[in-house]
């Protein structure tokens, strides 16, 4: 099935964006990933009791059961950050590619002063490649047209689009990819999956944990800040995702048999919860391919996901809102406070949280 996922009307919760705020001192923001990947810490939150347990990510198998279905987002980050200079002044600029609309035209986030429609940039690393700002949207979002196709050049001239709160350079760009990344298209990594190693995946499979994959190409919707006072007023622009017929069948089998479907990351949650639903013929979800604008706030009824592996997220973000919808806002914020007291590392290269 293809199209726009509209799994139901957005809930009017009356919750304010400020309800999802918390103070995080900068020292808790991880600047580099730990080595090896599965040496990160793991906080386990029991949603029914609020009880917390602490472990290392490599011990994840202790909290899983034979027959659990672990679902990953197999998207691969493209080196979508382009450095540039303004033709008129020589001033520095950046272009973060989000989604290609046409062979030469992209939705993008731009950095630099005075980048208005008509502004022309020379892209570093490729003589003759220019980018013209065609249209301005809200914030830093722009429609950008290139003088010739940029996609074939990205592996050579593009840079890994690390989040703005990470100030250190990444020596190995593969550390901002999951070990199972397969389908190019994301402007940011599905960071909950960064903790997995091939060895850990093999160990889980040998222990009887089933593994499957969906795709959601991470774009503006996942990391755009929420600026509206009323959280429900935040606009989602849509990100492409796909749940295959084979994956849907395995999810349906797990749900019928009472086995847990565990999402690795909030993007996997959005992909799974965007699937069409049904009750006849023994199926619960159907395959889906298309754009999803699903915005999950407290009050959302989770149809597919039974447990969630995720990282610790930014204040006032759609990601924190989704996690709060899954485990309860007060319970999640209390767990975040406990994580700070215990010295956990936050955000993309930080530690992990398992909500059961």
CATH topology of the largest domain: QueA-like
Order of helices and strands: EEEEEEEEEEHEHEHEHEHEEHHE
Radius of gyration: 20 Å
Q: Which CATH class of the largest domain is shown?
A: Alpha Beta
| Low-pLDDT segments, ≥5 res | 1-9
Categorize the overall geometry: globular
Total DSSP helices: 7
- Kindly report the spatial arrangement of strands forming the biggest sheet: 2-1-17-16-14-3-12-13-15
- In terms of structural class, how would the helical and strand content be classed? alpha/beta
Mind telling me which CATH architecture of the largest domain this is? 3-Layer(aba) Sandwich
Total E-strand runs: 17
Helix percentage? 10-25%
> For the record, what is the CATH homologous superfamily label of the largest domain?
QueA-like
Domains, number: 2
Mean pLDDT: 93
What portion of residues belong to β-strands?
Answer: 25-35%
Question: Main sheet, how many strands, which sense, barrel?
Answer: 9 strands, mixed
- Distance between the ends: 30 Å
Can you describe this structure?
- With 356 residues, the protein is an alpha/beta fold.
- It has two domains: 17-77 and 172-355, 3-Layer(aba) Sandwich (QueA-like), CATH 3.40.1780.10; 81-157, Beta Barrel (Thrombin, subunit H).
- The protein contains seven helices and 17 strands.
- It has helices spanning 154-157, 198-206, 220-223, 245-256, 266-273, 318-327, 329-341; strands spanning 41-45, 52-56, 69-73, 75-77, 81-86, 92-102, 105-111, 120-123, 130-136, 141-146, 183-186, 210-216, 239-243, 261-264, 288-292, 307-311, 352-355.
- The protein has a nine-stranded mixed sheet with strand order 2-1-17-16-14-3-12-13-15.
- A hairpin with a 5-residue loop joins strand 5 and strand 6.
- Mean pLDDT is 93; it is low at 1-9.
